[in-house]
């Protein structure tokens, strides 16, 4: 999450919410709370992925990142199945491992045979890491199969890694035409996105090679003839985090947090198009060094009406007829926006919702970073599929300790709400 506007943005969000109230959907379960402090192992819930066990869907898994806390695997009751530590720092003055985003690859051909993989972006080391998924393995379903020689994604050396303009957002993609598997990775505090081809290495390991990169804009021409850039700390550019690829047509959707949602070919060869803008698009701001916040100026009225910065977790809901939704976390106002998945309808807005408390012990989702949806049967608990969303402020919490986790939502409720 990047630097936010104060005062003016809050008022705009409240006005929009009052004018267009969105329905609430309650979660069915939540994972144990994570604490981003020394006592909690600096674990901070961020991004989930849903792995479907085709042999026994009721024994499927949610695999999720916890930043310096590594990787977590949960069953469909939201109970922990395995915790995988992030790798240690290279040296005493280097950054430790920090898992930011996660996605899945099905059936990648390795030297040891085809395997399902969880792929994570390790922001601390500027690499990708790979974990083979074996549901019934005695030591836990996740096994590290990262090639030790896997290169940095954006950095030339460890000094650049320590600047932490490193691998950040992540989406995987399997190209139907070639059968090859890729990861698209964004760069922290920059506008770049890299396309990496995933490759087998010796001993059943996995590595990658960079195919090409694309830089999204950092400044924008407004209708009044002026040029606007999102307010941020000095030296930072508007980064991308939430990303997802539609496998049916090879379209990448990328959430530039303070700008909006971009649509482009996943091979990064075409021109990006802006699907929707955040409400704050075009609002001038001045960064205050003392408060570490941006003081917003007058809103010129060029922003969108559906999402409030930051735009975060993006996920797709597929339907059998080829229809479905692109879901986006509107982090600034704690809502989720749904867009038509079909390109012929130009991803038009279809509605939105909130994830609201189910009771005193089971709260909703606030400031959601990551989300994952799977519209397939997952046993008796989720026969209509599952939506998993990060909760940036778990309640009731534990005093002043940072508290985050993941909420499990019946996707059938979401679909009914959007279809009504």
Overview features:
mainly beta, single chain, 41% strand, five-stranded antiparallel beta sheet, 420 residues
What does this structure look like?
The chain is built from three helices and 31 strands. The protein is mainly beta and 420 residues long. The chain has a five-stranded mixed sheet. Strands 3, 4, 29, 30 and 31 form a five-stranded antiparallel sheet that branches. A hairpin with a 2-residue loop joins strand 9 and strand 10. It is globular, with a radius of gyration of 20 Å. About 3% of the residues have low confidence.
Summarize the structure.
The chain has 420 residues and is mainly beta.
**Terminal Cα separation, in Å?**
32 Å
Number of extended strands: 31
Strand content: 35-45%
Strand count, sense and barrel status of the largest sheet are: 5 strands, mixed
Rg, nearest Å: 20 Å
Which ranges are low-confidence, i.e. pLDDT below 50, for 5 or more consecutive residues? 6-18
Shape: globular
| Overall pLDDT score | 94
Percent of residues in helical segments? under 10%
Coarse structural class: mainly beta
Spatial strand order of the main sheet: 2-28-27-26-25
The count of helical stretches stands at 3
What's the SSE blueprint?
Elements: E1 5-6, H1 8-19, E2 24-25, E3 29-30, E4 34-35, E5 48-51, E6 61-65, E7 71-74, E8 80-84, E9 99-110, E10 113-122, E11 127-133, E12 142-144, H2 158-162, E13 167-174, E14 181-187, E15 192-200, E16 206-215, E17 220-221, E18 227-228, E19 240-246, E20 251-256, E21 260-265, E22 273-277, E23 285-288, E24 293-296, E25 311-318, E26 324-330, E27 335-340, E28 349-355, E29 371-374, E30 386-391, E31 403-410, H3 411-419
Parallel strand pairs: 1-24, 2-28
Antiparallel strand pairs: 3-31, 4-31, 5-6, 6-7, 7-8, 9-10, 10-11, 11-12, 13-14, 14-15, 15-16, 17-18, 19-20, 20-21, 21-22, 23-24, 25-26, 26-27, 27-28, 29-30, 30-31
């Amino acid at each position: 999450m990047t630097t936010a506007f104060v005062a003016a943005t809050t008022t705009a969000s409240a006005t929009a919410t009052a004018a267009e109230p969105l329905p609430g959907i309650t979660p069915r379960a939540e994972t144990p709370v994570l604490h981003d402090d020394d006592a909690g192992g600096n674990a901070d819930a961020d991004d989930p992925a849903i792995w479907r066990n085709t042999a026994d869907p009721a024994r499927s898994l949610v695999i999720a990142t916890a930043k310096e806390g590594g990787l977590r695997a949960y069953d469909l009751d939201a109970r922990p199945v395995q915790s995988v530590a992030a790798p240690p720092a290279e040296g005493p003055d280097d950054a430790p491992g920090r898992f930011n985003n996660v996605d899945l690859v099905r059936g990648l051909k390795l030297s040891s045979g085809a395997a399902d993989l969880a792929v994570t972006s390790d922001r601390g080391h500027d690499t990708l890491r790979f974990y083979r998924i074996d549901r019934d393995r005695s030591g836990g379903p996740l096994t590290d199969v990262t090639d030790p020689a896997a290169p940095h994604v954006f950095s030339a050396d460890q000094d650049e890694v320590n600047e932490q303009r490193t691998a950040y957002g992540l989406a995987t993609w399997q190209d139907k035409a070639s059968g090859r598997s890729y990861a698209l990775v964004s760069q922290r505090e920059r506008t770049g996105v890299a396309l990496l081809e995933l490759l087998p290495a010796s001993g059943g390991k996995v590595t990658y090679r960079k195919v090409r990169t694309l830089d999204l804009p950092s400044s924008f021409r407004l209708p009044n003839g002026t040029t606007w850039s999102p307010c941020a700390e000095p030296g930072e550019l508007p980064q991308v985090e939430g990303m997802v690829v539609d496998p049916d047509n090879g379209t990448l959707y990328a959430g530039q947090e303070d700008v909006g949602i971009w649509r482009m070919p996943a091979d990064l060869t075409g021109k990006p198009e802006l699907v929707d803008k955040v409400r704050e698009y075009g609002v001038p701001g001045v960064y205050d060094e003392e408060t570490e916040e941006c003081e917003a100026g007058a809103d010129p009225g060029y922003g969108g009406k559906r999402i409030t910065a930051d735009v975060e977790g993006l996920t797709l809901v597929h339907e059998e007829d080829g229809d479905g939704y692109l879901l986006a976390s509107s982090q600034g106002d704690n809502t989720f926006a749904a867009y038509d998945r079909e390109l012929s309808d130009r991803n038009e807005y279809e509605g939105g919702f909130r994830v609201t408390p189910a009771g005193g012990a089971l709260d909703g989702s606030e400031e959601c970073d990551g989300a994952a949806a799977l519209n397939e049967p997952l046993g008796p608990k989720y026969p209509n599929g599952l939506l998993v969303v990060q909760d940036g402020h778990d309640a009731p919490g534990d005093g002043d300790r940072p508290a985050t986790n993941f909420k499990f939502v019946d996707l059938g409720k979401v679909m009914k709400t959007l279809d009504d």
